Amino acid sequence: MLSDLEAAALGVIWKQGPCTAYAVRKHFRESPSSHWSASAGAIYPLIHRLVERGYLASADLPRGRRPSASLQVTKSGRAAFRAWIGPPVSAHVASQTFDALRTRALFLGVLTPQRRERWLADAENALREHRRRIEESHAAGGADEDEWFELAYRSSIRETRARLAWIREARELSAARDRG
Amino acid sequence: MLSDLEAAALGVIWKQGPCTAYAVRKHFRESPSSHWSASAGAIYPLIHRLVERGYLASADLPRGRRPSASLQVTKSGRAAFRAWIGPPVSAHVASQTFDALRTRALFLGVLTPQRRERWLADAENALREHRRRIEESHAAGGADEDEWFELAYRSSIRETRARLAWIREARELSAARDRG
DNA sequence: AGCGGCATGTAAGCTGTTACATGATTCT
DNA sequence: AGAATCATGTAACAGCTTACATGCCGCT
Asked: Which residues pair with B27 in a beta bridge?
């Protein structure tokens, strides 16, 4: 059974074709629709695990004394990946989301009205900036992006817009509360 | 420095007033806008940590030989909580989201058109069901909910609607691809 | 030749999961 | 009284983060 991060790594290598572990890291780091930090301490051991399990084939690259390897998804790796993505979407997968702003917004009641307004204004600005960055890299990615990667961008953009609309609603609620 | 889960636990105890560790667990388990499983192995050690650090005061409850405690946020606990939620929303907090469907959708390209259609149809159904459940418990919660907890519901609802609209877009894309 | 950034890793520590254990309470 | 459920935990394990180490490469 693959974890989401393992599956994503397999998927990236499958789509990109043979590449190194570092390329996978870079992919995660630069993708705005992925939430993984992809620290070295996460990626390298993960890759080794997948090689050990036979999901990745590792071919040595000549690079001095320090080993480097070109990774490629094996047949059984593809099977494992299909077993991860394939089954009918479960309720668990459908409901599994996270939003750090929402987590904090739950407790806005503990702030003074002033600080709350300030927080909400900050949040709105940060979200706007976030949206700008996504739309920018979406536009920049352009033609070389995979069709489904492009779809993930749209997901992020829709999500960000929904969060912005929600923050505006929250600001109105907050303002109304202070008036009333 | 508090983790998000620690802060959420503190926040819940602060809002609810003195309560037991189990009440916190129950809160997480039943809230549709929280993504924490709140397993026993996570919550009890976490509570003990917060007591040790002086963020929670623990008063023994008379309950046979097995100890139970009523928890209350201390002054320094409130300070720690404010330090968590208070600072201007960082880019990191604004951009930190997760969507298990999006993670999978990135790799729909590896499925056959048939399986892809099937996956998307499943996803739409699962999302619809998810939306139904949220809206239901939102309606049921009603008057006794905290104003800001209610706002978190709205966040979840908006999020789910955005995801549904996105899945529909994906289905159209997928269908168009197969025709063309 | 040295310096900064690329690339591959490892070690320690923390946090969460699963699975189990066990006491207390309530229901029948 | 016995069964189911509530409630509090713990032990083993897995995975991620941070911080560090180290080799390689390109530029000046």
From this structure: none
